[in-house]
């Protein structure tokens, strides 16, 4: 953005937040006006800001960038603190997602930790989440199981059809449904380019009964299950994907393995 195109209000707000830096730019010494005096001066005559910019544009940009970095760091610290507080509360009062044992699970039935995942087959962040969940299950082969639920986002047109295929396949065979799930995330680019043709080929390659699959894809039961997942995600204030609930403790976003580990280990008393 060119300096002469800067919005006066934006420049004023940014500069008054970094009055010390502006004083340096203006070449002021120890007898410089106080921040409140400088603020009043700028309010009376905003052109002071532009004079400062013209005098030392590189230094001005450096000051503004530093202020932006500091503000971003403070915001991140605030968000981390809020997230930790929410997590502590959920350890005390866990969320209670519906656990239907008739659905397709990944991992052992007697696992101490159940991760409920709300996901979108077309979402690139869910692809990262998929890789992390695999890492989690490798690290905790006997202690963790995953219940995959659906939150297909409206701007991902292939997500809902892919979810319907997963649930329709699961009616026939849970293991094949999980293999379908893996194939979709491992080849997400093909899902986007080939759509249902890729879903159908994947199902066929897995040995799914295609006639029954067609019937189940059109059934109300499949759509009702997906809609129930969507409604449940909203009830937990999960609006983006992926979202996880780890034995009642939520994790919103494609967090790396250490975040999962810290929650799981706390549940396990490690």
Describe this structure in words.
With 270 residues, this protein is an alpha+beta fold. The chain has 2 domains: 3-91, no CATH class; 105-268, Glutaredoxin, CATH 3.40.30.10. It has helices at residues 8-16, 19-25, 35-44, 47-55, 57-92, 124-139, 159-172, 174-186, 188-194, 196-205, 210-217, 220-235, 257-268; strands at residues 105-106, 113-119, 144-150, 243-246, 249-252. A 5-stranded mixed sheet has the order 1-3-2-4-5. The model is unreliable at 1-18 (pLDDT under 50).
Q: What is this structure's SSE topology?
A:
Elements: H1 8-16, H2 19-25, H3 35-44, H4 47-55, H5 57-92, E1 105-106, E2 113-119, H6 124-139, E3 144-150, H7 159-172, H8 174-186, H9 188-194, H10 196-205, H11 210-217, H12 220-235, E4 243-246, E5 249-252, H13 257-268
Keywords:
single chain, 270 residues, alpha+beta, Glutaredoxin, 2 domains, five-stranded mixed sheet, 13 helices, elongated
Q: Quote the CATH topology of the largest domain.
A: Glutaredoxin
Order of helices and strands: HHHHHEEHEHHHHHHEEH
Number of strands: 5
State the end-to-end CA separation.
Answer: 52 Å
């Amino acid at each position: 953005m060119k300096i002469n195109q800067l919005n006066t209000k934006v420049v004023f707000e940014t500069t008054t937040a970094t009055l010390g830096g502006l004083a340096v730019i203006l070449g002021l010494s120890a007898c410089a006006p106080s921040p409140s005096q400088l603020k009043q001066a700028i309010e009376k005559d905003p052109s002071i800001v532009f004079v400062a910019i013209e005098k030392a544009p590189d230094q001005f940009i450096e000051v503004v960038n530093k202020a932006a970095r500091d503000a971003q760091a403070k915001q991140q610290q605030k968000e981390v603190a809020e997230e930790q507080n929410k997590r502590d509360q959920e350890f005390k009062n866990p969320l209670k997602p519906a656990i239907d044992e008739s659905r397709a699970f990944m991992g052992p039935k007697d696992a101490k930790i159940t991760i409920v995942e709300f996901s979108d087959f077309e979402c690139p962040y869910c692809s990262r989440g998929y890789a992390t969940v695999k890492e989690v299950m490798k690290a905790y082969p006997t202690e963790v199981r995953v219940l995959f639920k659906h939150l297909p986002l409206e701007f991902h047109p292939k997500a809902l059809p892919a979810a319907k295929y997963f649930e329709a396949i699961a009616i026939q065979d849970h293991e094949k449904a999980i293999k379908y799930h893996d194939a979709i995330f491992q080849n997400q680019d093909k899902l986007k380019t080939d759509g249902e043709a890729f879903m159908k080929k994947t199902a066929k390659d897995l040995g799914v009964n295609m006639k029954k699959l067609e019937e189940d894809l059109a059934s109300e039961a499949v759509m009702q299950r997906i809609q129930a997942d969507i409604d449940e995600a909203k009830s937990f204030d999960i609006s983006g994907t992926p979202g996880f609930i780890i034995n009642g403790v939520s994790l919103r976003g494609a967090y790396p393995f250490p975040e999962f580990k810290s929650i799981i280990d706390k549940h396990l008393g490690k």
